[in-house]
Amino acid sequence: MPAGAVIWIHGLGDSGDGWRGAFGPVERKLPNVKFHHPDAPVRPVTCNGGGRCPSWFDIVDIPVVLAEPDDPKDIEESVKTLHGLLDKVQSEGVAPGDIVIGGFSQGGTMSLLAGLKYPKTLGGVISISGWCANRANLSAHISAEGKKTPVLMCCGDGDPVVDFSITKKSSEMLQAILGEGIEVLCPRRGMHQPDGSEMQRVMQFMVEHLPSE
């Protein structure tokens, strides 16, 4: 029986396998922690001209900016899917406080929403290059127990895919609600993917918030 779990959520057009093995040092250090890499459904996406690809919810335009609509299509269905996975992991004997949910880009957005909306306090939430998808009423999407969940949010100041305007605003809104419960890293990077310092901190965060045995 695993002692802890990580649920890692991929970005638009990717698959769970795209991130499998990315946290090798954590897997070696914490062999009793099980990693889960769910796959998003294939569905039409507006920013792809309506073309179908793996996607947790609809995105209107790339780069994603502050004008990106709140409460995008299919996002609540994906929250239910991820909450179901969180429930399943607990049914296998893992306590909610020993589960970290995280993701990249669209997956980071999902980890923030699903993790903070969940009715139990989790071990942690991680977002790399993600944003808040319900900015108009963000506090309504964070449960009382979710406010106690530690959060690590990473975003690049020159990200060409998810603009810094929306990640910075999202982080400021979360800081106003969560206070010291959220750590924000905004390294100088002109690419969408995380840099080495972010990945190092992400893995440290996992080790800090997951059981060692």
Description:
This protein is of the alpha/beta class and 213 residues long. It is built from five helices and eight strands, in the order βαβββαβαββαβα. It has helices at 24-29, 75-91, 106-117, 164-178, 196-209, and strands spanning 4-9, 33-36, 42-44, 52-54, 99-104, 124-128, 151-154, 182-185. It has a six-stranded parallel β-sheet, sandwiched between helices. It has a two-stranded antiparallel sheet with strand order 3-4. The termini are close together.
Number of strands: 8
Query: Helix fraction?
Result: 25-40%
The largest beta-sheet arranges its strands as 2-1-5-6-7-8
End-to-end gap: 11 Å
Spatial shape: globular
Number of helices: 5
Largest pleated sheet: 6 strands, parallel
Q: Give the radius of gyration.
A: 16 Å
Specify the structural class. alpha/beta
What is the typical, i.e. mean, pLDDT?
Answer: 97
Low-confidence stretches: none
The secondary-structure element order is EHEEEHEHEEHEH
Summarize the structure.
Helices cover 30% and strands 16% of the residues. The chain has 213 residues and is an alpha/beta fold.
Describe the secondary-structure layout.
Layout: E1 4-9, H1 24-29, E2 33-36, E3 42-44, E4 52-54, H2 75-91, E5 99-104, H3 106-117, E6 124-128, E7 151-154, H4 164-178, E8 182-185, H5 196-209
Helix pairs in contact: 2-3
